[in-house]
Specification:
heterodimer, A: five-stranded mixed β-sheet, 24% strand, B: alpha+beta, Aldehyde Oxidoreductase, domain 3
Chain lengths: 89, 152
């Protein structure tokens, strides 16, 4: 089983609607340690996440409120947000 | 970031209060256009509201970082960024950018930079809600990305 604090995961816009929640806390297995491996992990967790992450090229990410890349490291206790490209202004 | 309307005159007065060194203030106000991206040029239901969602916490940090970047690049005497969230009707203002400097060039350039980066680097999302109840998330425009890229 995983050790340490859960990762707080946030979803916004159509990704939030597809997945059906704006926030969840997830304990990560040790091999999940980056944005990319977290996306892969979430995608396989249930059909809603699979549908949400289907258009992976359209999904952006922030780790601890800073824009991140698929290679960005994710650690227990982090806040990770997934969302579509921003459309403010 | 706020749900309420903003008052451009009041924001302008606040930015320049007690100062005599400002030579010009650039100003951009973004408003809700009735013809929205999802239905542009098409017959059909009218846009009823534009719903602005944001990432509380990161939004403030991103806006502060964008303002700090503008201050690095231009000789600014101050700037103001106001972005509304929640449900807005056509014609209502969404976003306000003010940039004050000694001379107009820095004020105008910084204003353009600030709105270009706000559109592409601050975590806001727009959803169009039409009069028949249908909803459509606005997609990011490559033109906005290109506009932001010119400041690299």
């Amino acid at each position: 089983m995983s050790g340490g604090a859960p990762v707080r995961i946030l979803y916004f816009a159509w990704l939030r609607e597809r997945i059906g929640t704006g926030e969840e806390a997830v304990h990560l297995p040790p091999e999940v340690d980056s944005v990319q491996t977290l996306m892969d992990f979430l995608r396989t967790s249930d059909p809603r996440h699979a549908a949400g992450f289907e258009r992976a090229a359209l999904i952006r990410c922030a780790v601890n409120q800073v824009f991140a890349t698929p290679q960005t490291k994710v650690s227990p206790g982090d806040e990770v947000a997934f969302f579509p490209p921003v459309t403010g202004g | 970031m706020q749900a309420a309307h903003f008052d451009v005159s009041a924001e302008l007065a606040a930015l320049s209060a007690g100062r005599t060194d400002i030579g010009g203030v650039g100003c951009f106000v973004g408003t809700v256009r009735a013809e929205r991206q999802g239905r542009a040029g098409q017959q059909g239901p009218a846009l009823q509201t534009l719903v602005l969602e944001h990432y509380a916490g990161m939004t403030e940090a991103a806006m502060a970082a964008i303002a700090a970047e503008a201050a690095q690049r231009w000789d600014l005497l101050g700037c103001t960024l106001v972005h509304r969230v929640g449900a807005l009707r056509p014609g209502e203002p969404i976003v306000l950018v003010l940039a004050a400097s000694r001379h107009r060039q820095a004020a105008l350039e910084a204003t353009a930079f600030l709105i270009d980066w706000l559109k592409t680097r601050a975590p806001f999302w727009k959803k169009e809600v039409f009069s028949d109840g249908t909803e459509l998330w606005v997609e990011a425009r490559t033109a906005d990305e290109a506009a932001a890229e010119r400041w690299r």
